[in-house]
Design goal:
This protein starts with a strand and ends with a helix. About 30% of the residues lie in helices and about 15% in strands. The chain is an alpha/beta fold. The protein has a three-stranded parallel β-sheet with strand order 3-4-5, with helices on one face. Strands 1-2 form a two-stranded antiparallel sheet. The protein is built from four helices and five strands, in the order E-H-E-E-H-E-H-E-H.
Length: about 100
């Protein structure tokens, strides 16, 4: 049995993290953790992405194209993923559209 996003965010590693969006999903259960730093490939990702995935990403494939970023977040969410955690390695802030996504 996994832990919830809310419980995971209490871990020391996330002590400086901010929740930008999706606070309604804090009680989603995490079943597995992985890195997601590749462009979306629908045929592959419909098979690979599973409900309860917690992804850590540097957002690099999506950082320069807001429409593609919105598409990616919507797609990842539609697969039932528990959380999409973005590091600030390549992106310092999000637009309002991305925060609402």
């Amino acid at each position: 049995m996994g832990i919830t996003v809310r419980e995971a965010l209490k871990l020391d590693i996330f002590k400086n993290s901010k929740i930008l969006a999706g606070s309604k999903g804090l009680d989603r259960v995490i079943n597995r953790v992985s890195v997601f730093d590749c462009p979306i490939q629908v045929d592959r990702d419909k098979i690979v992405l599973k409900e309860g995935d917690f992804f850590v990403s540097n957002f690099f494939p999506f950082k320069d194209d807001e429409n593609y970023a919105l598409y990616a977040l919507d797609f990842i969410n539609s697969c039932g993923c528990a959380c999409f955690c973005v590091t600030n390695e390549y992106i310092d802030s999000f637009t309002e559209n991305l925060i609402k996504a």
